[in-house]
Please model this.
Amino acid sequence: MTYVPHTDADVREMLATIGVNSIDELFADIPEDLRLKGELRIPSRLDEHQLMRHMAGLAAQNLDLSQVTCFLGAGIYDRYIPASVGAVISRGEFLTAYTPYQPEVSQGYLQTIYEFQSMIAELYGCDLANASMYDGPTSLAEAALMACSLKRKDIVVMSEGIHPHARQVMETYAWSNEVEVRTLPLKDGQTDLSQMPEGAVLLIQNPNFYGVIEDLAAARAAADSQGAMLVVSADPTACGLLKAPGHYGADVVVGEGQPLGIPMGLGGPMLGLFACKQEYVRSIPGRIVGRTHDAQGRPGFTMTLRTREQDIRREKATSNICTNEALMALASTVYMSAVGKNGIRSVATSTVQNTQYAIKVLTEAGGKLKFPNARVFGEFVLTLPKPAAEVRDALLSHGILAGLPLGPYLAGGENDLLVAVTEIRTQEEIDDFARALREVLNG
Amino acid sequence: MKPIPLIFEKSRPGRIGCNLPKADTPEVDVQAILGETRDAVAWPEIGELDMLRHFTNLSHRNYGIEIGFYPLGSCTMKYNPKINERTAGLTGFTHTHPMQPEETIGGFLEVYASCMDILKEITGFDDITMQPVAGAHGELACLMLIKAYHESRGEGAQRRVVLVPDSAHGTNPASAARCGYVVKTIPTAEDGNTDLEALAKELGPDTAAFMVTNPSTLALFETNITKVCQMVHEAGGQVFCDGANMNAMVGTTRPGDHGFDCMHLNLHKTFSTPHGGGGPGCGAIGLKSHLAPYMPGPVITRNDAGQAVLDHDRPHCIGRVSGFFGQSLMAVRALTYFLAYGREGMSSISRYSVLNANYVKARLKDVLPAAHDRPCMHECVLTAKQYKEYGVRALDLSKALIDYGFHPPTNYFPLIVPEAFMIEPTETEAKETLDAFCDALIEICELAKTDPDALHAAPTKAIVGRLDEAAAVKNLDVRYQPA
Amino acid sequence: MNVPGDLKYTKSHEWVRIEGDTATIGITDHAQSELGDIVFVDLPNEGRQLGAEEVFGSVESVKAVSDIYSPVSGEVVEANGTLGAQSELVNSDPYGQGWLIKVKLNGEPEGLLSASEYEATL
Model:
């Protein structure tokens, strides 16, 4: 009865009030043959000390990336997280609250969501943002399906520069909705927009999976040539320096919010970002918080445009999403407030600086840029004279997680390594990487 | 109390709220490297202490389980053990990347596999996947598996209808629509069970699935469940169990034994991972072996040596439904919770949650009678219709509870109960808390007859009164605009 | 509840005013009162062909949405543009300024209720 506070006396009194003799009687509606006989075949209970030791033992069986130097990115980044983020989201008032359906007792959370929406809309250059989606890939898929429904056309055009996992999620959602997915190939690392097929929407990622900055003005024009909407999946950190997708006229901007103060945590929980133009506000998935007032004129916040949602609109809802990633959105709100206007520019600038330095020393150490003419932000593809997976494994024994071998993702990419360099890498760490790489390549 | 200004309004040029790392590599011409760059992002500039005060002060205006009783029906607001937060905070978990080599995440794969082993045993299903990241996402994943199954039998085009009871959560029809299905509604019979005649009439060669919540949203165990499953199967359809009410069944009865083909679980309800103000959730699904080939990837399994590994050989996999493995850090919390109860204590979850719900129902029977006169499961659905003649609605009673320091229960759901008042106490509440809540509610119900206006004005002790939600829609303000 | 005698009605709470070959359509006083504060009205484009009993739009309050069914068949010749900014007119003046659409009839309307027949359904 680990977390159950009942004493025997409590139980006796409660049963008497109910008018039954045993707890078993309360289960009378469950047919006898459906009741479980005997104990479950699961492990025995552990006390709190044993629990901590057991779980720490499991944690120790993972490679803890705080103990190595991490150059693995591919959409999930090892970035600085201010200590204040953890302090705020572990407060019980936030951590143990439900969705703020009762605004009178949820003003604190509602205000943080309004602030979150404001910061994301500003970052992405959009009119508005919702209160969050599950993760970047599902946010992208929902945006695509929204576009299909607005355009009454069941075709999605997807760049091959989108994260392969996001593409797989899109394929799954498209299959179940009988939507066709047409892909646009890459040319020199950038999406080839010259042959835009007919479709409801063009999906593109910036920077793309290979770190390359896409031509969003050209993407807008390509989408327009087919009367399609433009959905951009944008890295939030890169938006600290790059012109926002909204600036180029993106209809919807989505993204993975993890770089904004959320631990990598084996990829979950993450934070789906979703921002768009005002004209789509009645069609978007997910919750939205708005500012209003009470009868006495006091300002307050409440969830709004609720009739889009599943509990009211049922099968006609704009999406089935209900629970989102509120706590992760709060984490990112604290992050965005802590780094602020100048901090995000500094994070992005340090990322570019470190990336340029890494390109220099790693190419000197024997790697070659796969897309030498492309502009990159914080990540790049290095072609090695040896299979990238072997090199990655060899470098791990030097305490360096070198990146993602691209063999499984890129045809003929066995020797390609996707390397990410965030703001927290030091010159010394990058030099060590180059030194070890040289050793591995010459060894 | 005064409103707390937006954090933007506290911004002063030049301040920063953290001790930010800065690259020590040689400076570069960013403009030349990136091409176009933007103007500064207009995020606030605020010092660390003032930034923390902002969020701390906001937290004081928010209600959580750790503040008081949170009897929100259908939401299972139970205690979220602190030890779960500690284990999930271990850097061996937090500092792992979903694309680092498989050989270096053995501990995490074991966490997942252990959760899956335990969930299989608790639910009676053959397989579990934890890739869905929320309850509605789990529903969607189940429907996708059902779709793949029908397609594999050449019946994909024909089976286009998903049946949903009129008492269902809105996510059920919404998930069916999101999966490309047509939705038809099945009425509930007088006794609270599924109307079998109506079901029989709708079942046919176009039936893809029937989505059943068991115990139902009326908090009643579907006594005909075996029969229901049999009828749907005879028509060639599949039966999905909405696991929102799993708390009533843990260690007592197993949906896999009822005849269901698949179900979703809300680990953030039943298995104590925190709701976090509306997420992250964790929507594991259980399924029978005939649906297993279609499970979304990546699939975690145990090899012959019992070691947790990824199964790369899944030719019929529907693909991914989310970016990576699922809500990994939530799986750590759930495993911590499972092991804290263990086989000795697991059934106390259902037993004491059902005891608490029946106790509240008994204590309130004179002021708020149950919608159905049967033992309730882990929550009770009461009706406040008797106060309508005084001009008092269920919502008015709920708002008055706020002034007594309690979070309101769920109102107006299920839709088929007039003035529904749905209370879910959970097993972690002590008798004296339930008594204090019932005492308050009895007093409020008395007030409903003697001073209805007082209830219309409630809450009066909260930060704000009832908000003008019509104005919120008409004068949409969802984003700060600098003056 | 206000049920003007000179209009025709449907069981689904729409009213119709027929003048020549044009029908003006709205929702009844009863319907607006059940819905509460109306915050949004979704109306069809001009030129759309409607069949009788076809859904042509919806009215929304904060917590409910109600589909609106066409009582007649014909072509939409005008939608009430004022409601875009002033949806509350459907509450305050359901039979007047709160009208929804005008339809050019392509046949004699059938199966409509008189005011007293409609009142009997409430």
